[in-house]
Structures are given as structure tokens and as C-alpha cells.
Amino acid sequence: VGSEMCIRDSHKTQIVQLYLRGYQLTEIQQRTRHSAGSVKRYLRDFSHVIDLHLQGLPLEEMRMVTGCSERLIGEYIGLYKATLRDYPHAPRLQRFLETSSPPQARKRGQS
Questions:
Q1: pLDDT at position 104, please?
Q2: Residue from 101, 102, 96, 105 nearest 16 by CA
Q3: What is the average pLDDT score of the chain?
Q4: Could you report the per-residue pLDDT of 79-91, keeping only the tens digit for each?
Q5: DSSP state of 9
Q6: Are 71 and 44 in contact (CB under 8 A)?
Q7: Which residues contact 42 (CB under 8 A, 6 or more apart)?
Q8: Measured distance CA(75)–CA(103) in Å, rounded
Q9: Cβ distance 54 to 100 under 8 Å?
Q10: Secondary structure (DSSP) of 13-31
Q11: Which residues 6+ apart lie within 8 Å of 104 measured at CB?
Q12: Read out DSSP for 52-81?
């Protein structure tokens, strides 16, 4: 996928990273040779993992809830933290944070 990616990260993490960097879904599909469905699934999994992480769920419980491996969960959390640190106002990261907040919190905030 390119030298700009960390070699140890899975292709799933690399795809999410491309998305967070502003690449369009079609560009990601072309660069990685993954289907639109796969790319969307990786983004959905990333969002779910980050949501659970922000809720403070332990790693083992995140694994059971998401079906993702501990390694992938760790990669996603690492990518989230690195993006937050290096580019905290990334529009796409903000979008993930807005959509991954628990429904109960949104309801309370709107009341």
C-alpha cells in the first residue's frame, strides 16, 4: 500500500489510516485492491472499537463484542491516539467521534 504506512500494521489499519488522511473510498479501493464493502466494514469496525475504547471497555470485552482480534484492536487504538496527537482536528476523526458517542449520552446532551 505504500512506504508511508507502518509495515507492522495490518491492511485494515492501513485502509483506515488512508481514510483518516482524507482519501476518498474509491481511491482507497484502487490503492489497496479492496472492495467497497470491505473498506466500509473496516471503517465500521474502527468506529466500533474507538467507541468501546472511549467508554473504557477492557480489551478482552472489546474483542468479544467486536469479533476483532486483540492485535487489530490495539492497532486501531494506536491509530486513533496517533491521529488525535498528530492531527487532532482531522475532520474525519471528528466525524468518527461524533457518530460513535453512546446514544444515551446524545439523548442526555439534547435534553
A1: 39
A2: 96
A3: 82
A4: 999 998 888 777 7
A5: S
A6: no
A7: 12, 15, 16
A8: 25
A9: yes
A10: HHHHHHHHTT--HHHHHHH
A11: none
A12: HHHTT--HHHHHHHH---HHHHHHHHHHHH
Q: What is the pLDDT along the chain (111 residues), one digit of tens a residue?
A: 333 344 356 889 999 999 998 899 999 999 999 999 999 999 999 999 999 999 999 999 999 999 999 999 999 999 999 998 888 777 788 777 776 654 433 333 333
Name the amino acid, one letter, at 101.
S
- For residue 6, what are the contacts with CB-CB under 8 A and spacing of at least 6? 14
84 phi and psi angles, rounded to 5 deg: -60, -40
CA–CA distance from 27 to each of 1, 16, 23, 31, 32 (Å)? 12, 12, 6, 6, 8
